[in-house]
Structure formats: structure tokens, C-alpha cells
Amino acid sequence: MAKVLCVLYDDPVDGYPKEYARDDIPKITKYPDGQTTPTPKAVDFKPGELLGSVSGELGLRKFLESQGHTLVVTSDKDGPNSAFEKELPDAEIVISQPFWPAYMTKERFDKAKKLKLIITAGIGSDHTDLQAAMDKGVTVAEVTYCNSISVSEHIVMMILALVRNYIPSYGWVIKGGWNIADCVERSYDLEGMNIGTVAAGRIGLAALRRLKPFDVKLHYYDKHRLPNEVEQELGLTFHPNVESLVKVCDVVTINTPLHPETENLFDDKLIAKMKRGSYIVNTARGKIVDRDAVVRALESGQLAGYAGDVWFPQPAPKDHPWRTMPHHGMTPHISGSSLSAQARYAAGTREILESYFANKPIRTEYLIVDKGKLAGAGAHSYTAGDATKGSEDAARFKKSA
Length: 401
Ligand code: NDP
Prior knowledge:
By secondary structure, the chain is of the alpha/beta class. Helix content is 31%, strand content 14%. It is built from 15 helices and 14 strands.
């Protein structure tokens, strides 16, 4: 029987919800490419419930315990004395969400002698040292597409919030003001602007589709070109490299996975090539941009705004400079963890577990590493290597909280 070690974020400070703002969520059975949403045999939760926090347990306890497995759930994930590290040596399966990632470094792989499967309940497995997973023969799977649309909605929200100067304007209302000039001195229309995405995968393309009705000029850069009919339908300009895209765009949204090719992509040099007063929205991964280069560019005016929900490490220490830099619209990592998305990735996690325990293949689309190499979605979008370096700094959050 397997021990399943699951790392989830803490419950709300006021306790696990007894009721919700809405009574139901729309039922979605297919993603835009025709792939079905997760199809486990059953689920033991009501879609729309909070599943990603400790008490939500991703709705897995009944299912796992009824089969004789052990489920351990904790939010205490960082540092050598954490509950996670204490439970790791005899765990067969580790589950965590990118929002509150269990960083699986090489050192932790060395301690996890029984580990066979790591599941990302969400998308983006960069918190796992993929090279170590390949070397140790551990399978890594994620719930591909589960929250791609959720993130694309967040991107549109953040672009509008920055360009129209929403957050400071809301602030004036809370402060009791009616300071129109203060609000509008940095407020523009999106109409007519050039907006580009770095990567046009599931999220990047969904963001482009949602931005099209704003009468903007759309651009993209990706390793692979989109079909001609999609380029025509959306009026897209393809760029053969990221420099060419950033030179002409007013707004750039970053939508690549984090892997050795994309780590630190937006450094001082690349940001200097952008138009003065550009905006960056990064909901992909914090490490794709140079943390301090972003702060410098906001302070100098090279960037007019920066928003996103991804940081490094996570949780970000209290003194992380992005909490206090000017003209930012940061949220904690939440865009892919709406209650709507949680229902899908909890069901997807269950689907992966059902396949694993029944010795059946896991959906190819869900695979990142399998049988010692990049596989499925991982083989398409990742390169081999390790992006977890520096993650031990996440332990500082506890001390500063
Ligand atoms: P996809 O795999 O559908 O898209 C990723 C795209 O990135 C692919 O088109 C891929 O290209 C492209 N790509 C990879 N490397 C490069 C590179 N070096 N240069 C240019 N393009 C590159 O994934 P999603 O769109 O669903 O998700 C993307 C990322 O967003 C995730 O990996 C994750 O990090 C992040 N994410 C964030 C969430 C949040 O809550 N904030 C939630 C979900 C995801 P190709 O396949 O053509 O080779």
C-alpha cells in the first residue's frame, strides 16, 4: 500500500469555508483543442468547493483510504525540519500545486528512497528537478490544460488593470478621495496598442483570443509557428525571436514554461530593448525574469508597469522587492487556482492516481517525465535540467510571516 504525501496551501485565516459565494460552477467537459477535461471514475467533492487548501485535501482522502493507502497532508514544506521532509523518506507519491510548491530538489530525491510518482496538481513542474527525476526513474505528471483558460483570464485582467491604472484608482476610493487627476495621469486605452505573447501555447493562444476584441495588434514568438489559419483569424504577427517581439510591443505577456532555455530570459539587456513605458504581465514563472532588473526598470520608467502572480521562491519572503516596487499589480500565485480550476485539477490528480494504481498508462498529455526521459507534454515544451536552485529561500517566509 502506498504512502501519498500531499503538500497544500493553508486554509483561509478565518477557517475552512462553511459556505461559498456561488452555488454552482459551469460544467466544462472539453478544452478548446477537443481534449476532454479529467475523467476519473468518480470524485468525492462538489465542484466549486475549496480543494487546494489543507482541509480540502484535493478531495482525495476517501478514495485513497478506501483502497488501503495512507494520505498525509501538510502545508509545512520548506526547510530540513519541515513536516514534508520528515514524511518524505517512505513516500511513494508526492503531490503539490505550483501555487505552494513542494520543491523537489536533488537532495530531496536522495532522501526519498521509495518515490515513484510526483504529481503537479496544476500545470508547470519546474519545482521538481526534472533532471533528478529522469536520473532516478521517477515519473512526473501534471494536469495539462486544467487551468490554462483560468490563467488567460487573469492575464487580460492584469493587462487592463495596468494600462488603465485600476489598482491605484481603487486605492483612492478606499482612502476616501475623488482624485481624478491622480488616477488618470497614468491611465491609457488598450485600443490600438501592440500586444505580444512570448509563447503561444495553451495559455498564450487563449490570451490572444481573449484580447482580439479590444482592437489591438497582436504579436507572438514561439519555438513552433501556429497554423496559418490561426494566424490569419487573429491577425497575428509572428516574430522569429523574443528581441524582435519586445521591440515593437506596448504590452508583453510571458507564457512559456520555466526550463533552462527560459530562465532569466527577461534580464536588463532584454528589458532595455523594449519600448520605454512598456508593460510586462508574467503569469508563467517568476524565474523567467531577473527579479532586480524588473525593479530597476520600474524605477527608471523603462517599464510603466509589471504584474503577474508568479514569484521565486514561493511563498515569497516578506522582504521580496516585488512587494514594494512601484507600479506593480502583483497577486500571490492564484490565477490557476480559482475554485473552477481546482475542480478540474483535483479531478485530474484523481485520474492520474487511478491510472497509476491500476497499472494503466497515464494520459500522454499529462506526462512530463517518464521512464527516465522527458515525455508527453514535457517532451514538447521542456528541456532537460534543473530550475529549483535557490528554492531553499522559501523557508524564510515562515520566519518573516
Ligand atoms: P503549453 O505547454 O501549452 O505552452 C507552453 C508554450 O511555451 C509552448 O507553445 C512551447 O512551445 C512554448 N515554449 C517553450 N519553451 C519556449 C522557448 N524557449 N521560447 C519560446 N516558447 C517556448 O503550456 P500552458 O500554456 O498551459 O502553460 C505555460 C506555462 O504557464 C506553464 O508551464 C506554467 O509555468 C505556467 N502556468 C501558470 C499558472 C498560474 O497559475 N500562474 C497556471 C498554469 C500554467 P512549443 O510547444 O511550440 O515547443
